[in-house]
Design a protein that fits this description.
This protein has 380 residues and is of the alpha/beta class. It is 38% helix and 19% strand. It folds into two domains: 103 residues, Nucleotidyltransferase, domain 5; 213 residues, Exopolyphosphatase. Domain 2 (Nucleotidyltransferase, domain 5), CATH 3.30.420.150. The chain contains 13 helices and eleven strands. The radius of gyration is 20 Å and the shape is globular. GO terms for molecular function: pyrophosphatase activity. It comes from Rhabdonatronobacter sediminivivens. Pfam families: Ppx-GppA (PF02541).
């Protein structure tokens, strides 16, 4: 498969979801009409990816939001997808079990405004529509399979508060289970004090037209390759170091159509923000955290040398050492090297020796976009 860069990136993607639903509905009923919350109402965002099912329930608080409840479970929905092109029975059952838990949390908190989305595994699987109907029938949850553009856009929005005032050129990368999104944003025409607000405003869509005071997308790309799919592609390579090198080289080849790849950029005013489980795990390993602490990881800046040293340590550990390393965790040890291969390829080809780490992503972008739409957040 080739990376996706559809024409008309500034247009809003077509939505595949109908009206929303309230969480009080019986699971056997049709999803009822969604209502807008009051100013103190709760919002939910659910991200069903190739690997994980994750949800946040939050309330607006100033220019940010306060998390009320959360859920995260490695369901590995994409298991077997690379080989068969379909979602398999056991992964679907694991996912349904996780979604039932999410439904119970939505009921418990009486959430009225929500966005529940599925990404690459459901975009690719031939039987995904059947699965979405089964989810709706058995849980009452109405999942929306979003486009790569919307996924990329929401990842950018989630990182707004980490954008430095001095940033004129921004690269946001989001390494998922089944795809990797890269978005290059030009902020040079935006006043430094307004750059975070300009990123937040991108929830409306990507603009590729230069306009004073507006963020402009130079280019974006969705590579249909993430930590799970890249790992599966090279599963037949026995040598650990050779497999890592091949994965990194192969991923870099997929960037050929991304225009900034061929355009030298100045180091001054350039910022990379990385968001994904891979990147936060690398950051936690660098900090030596035996127990993950989001407050120490989110917003951390790492140099390319520091990232390189962590990846070298992973290679030295080998598969068994990584499995036992508490910094990596049992749920991520089989995929950390494919994620690291993607990360190293990206750090190799852009003109910076620093990366900002974001423990945030699609869920946070979904929450910000809903709250911004309803006008319940203060200006950043």
């Amino acid at each position: 498969m080739t990376p996706e860069r559809p024409a008309g990136a500034g247009a809003h993607p077509k939505s595949t979801h109908g009206p929303g639903m309230t969480a009080r509905a019986a699971t056997s009923a049709k999803p009822p009409r969604q209502t807008k919350p009051g100013r103190a109402g709760l919002y939910a965002a659910l991200d069903l990816g190739t690997n994980s099912c994750r949800m946040l329930i939050a309330r607006p608080k100033g220019a940010q939001f306060e998390v009320v409840d959360s859920f995260s479970k490695a369901v590995e929905l994409g298991t077997g997808l690379e080989q068969y092109g379909r979602l398999s029975y056991r992964p679907m059952e694991r996912t349904l079990h996780a979604l039932r838990i999410c439904r119970s949390k939505l009921d418990k908190h009486d959430v009225a405004s929500m966005r529940l989305v599925a990404t690459e595994a459901c975009r690719r699987a031939r039987n995904s529509r059947d699965f979405i109907r089964k989810v709706r029938r058995e849980t009452g949850l109405n999942l929306d399979i979003i486009t790569p553009e919307e996924e990329a856009r929401l990842a950018v929005v989630s990182c707004a508060s980490l954008v430095a005032r001095s940033t004129e050129q921004l690269l946001v990368l989001d390494i998922g289970g089944g795809s990797t999104e890269l978005v290059w944003v030009d902020l040079s025409s935006v006043a430094p004090a307004q750059r975070r607000a300009a990123i937040m405003d991108m929830h409306r869509g990507f603009s590729r037209t230069p306009r004073a005071g507006k963020a402009m997308v130079v280019d974006w790309i969705s590579v249909p390759m993430g930590v799970a799919t890249l790992r599966d592609m090279f599963a037949d390579v026995d040598d650990d170091a050779a497999r890592f090198a091949l994965m990194s080289w192969f991923f870099e080849e997929q960037l050929a159509d991304f225009s900034p790849y061929h355009s030298p950029q100045p180091r001054d005013g350039f910022q990379i923000i990385g968001t994904s489980g891979t990147i936060t795990t690398v950051a936690a390993s660098y900090l030596g955290l035996r127990r993950y602490d989001r407050n120490k990881v989110d917003g951390l800046t790492m140099t390319s040398d520091q990232i390189d040293q962590v990846v070298r340590d992973y290679l030295a550990l080998g598969p068994e050492g990584r499995r036992l390393d508490p910094r990596i965790g049992r749920e991520r040890h089989t995929q950390i090297m494919s994620g690291a291969a993607i990360l190293m390829a990206l750090m190799r080809v852009w003109p910076t020796d620093r990366m900002s780490v974001a423990d945030r992503g699609l869920r946070e972008g979904l929450l910000y976009s809903q709250m911004t739409r309803d006008g319940v957040l203060l200006p950043v």
